[in-house]
Amino acid sequence: PVTRRVSIFGATGSIGQNTIDLIARDAEAYDVVALTGASNIEQLAADAIRLNADIAVTANEGRLEELRAALAGSGIEAAAGQGALIEAAQRPVDWVMSAIVGAAGLQPGICALEQGATLALANKESLVCAGELILRTAKQNGARLLPVDSEHSAVFQALVGEDMNAVERIIITASGGAFRDWPLDDLANATLDQASSHPNWDMGQRITIDSASMFNKALELIETREYFGVSPAQIEVLVHPESMIHAMVGFRDGALMAHVGPPDMRHAIGYALHWPDRRALPVERLDLAAIGALTFRPPDEKRWPALRLAREVMERRGLAGAVFNAAKETALDGFIAGHLRFPQMAEVVDQVLNSLDPSHIDAQMTLDNVMNADHMARQAATRAIEQTTG
Ligand code: NDP
Ligand code: MG
User: What are the binding positions for Mn(2+) in this chain (predicted)?
Assistant: First the structure.
């Protein structure tokens, strides 16, 4: 049997660990090239040894010795820092999981596309910051881009065999996150712990908080626009507390194709891993009779101003997505550090979007310009946070 060469960027995170779970179940089928992580050296080394990877890379330069020690005697190469991450991403493979969190995932993903690998994209920030660049790089190198975000995987699956011209609308669902039913006035007192617990999904801390604020759904609106090439007016968000339907595609004949599945990322990861085949996956089989009812509500833009901000970004395009994401990441850091109250994250992002020089946002989409926009937006957001906290 042919083994597939695979690399996992962000192997120590929530998506990375779910990916490793699937790969480890069928280890002979894969030749693992690179695993990358950042602070969790122990996990990184253990998985590199378990999967017999060629190289393990930590993004943290200062952790090299620790990683070397953990890998001692295994014959597995250890490396650290941004340069090492890029070098590992350039190693030829057939399939890559892009699951670093944040804009830090952009450049390694581009390297993977440049060498023609299939890129399974969990890192939604790549499409938000640089959608046009990502799609162009994939096209120029004959590389395939597969969505892993559950909503986008669902849309992708609903579109198999369909003509994009027959698509009227795309509906992505949102659980509503931790504060869906809270009185609006209480949001200002939401704690980090409260924001970090998700009613349905078990995910990394940052995306969990982004689910409560709907910055996650905001990023996904932009991601939908970039990946599927539909207009902003064709994309809707629907609150669906049960998180069973992940997305729906509406066609011109009135049909809605809904993707239903348990809230387990191994479905979307497995779909991208085995595409275009469908293989058996270790996910729960839904008992709809036991579930009884699925419910839906419109999203409340007062509760979730991030959705309105995403609409602005989708209209402006260009580097507005990079600015939006960087401001969001900085505001999220501010909330995690206790410098911002929960609703102030959206205020900071709004201020940054309105304060930047339009000529920067309209600049050509190159990696340098994206990184530059990201950098300026982080500075502007840091200033806005300082003003907010006095
Ligand atoms: P986690 O926080 O659980 O994991 C993030 C991974 O990135 C870890 O391996 C972490 O290393 C690594 N990392 C963190 N910072 C850096 C950096 N500066 N440079 C390089 N590597 C870094 O995140 P998730 O797995 O939850 O999410 C990963 C991506 O997938 C995100 O873009 C998220 O939006 C997306 N996604 C996640 C879903 C989920 O269910 N979790 C669902 C849909 C999309 P370490 O832990 O060793 O420090
Ligand atoms: Mg999602």
Answer: 149, 151, 220
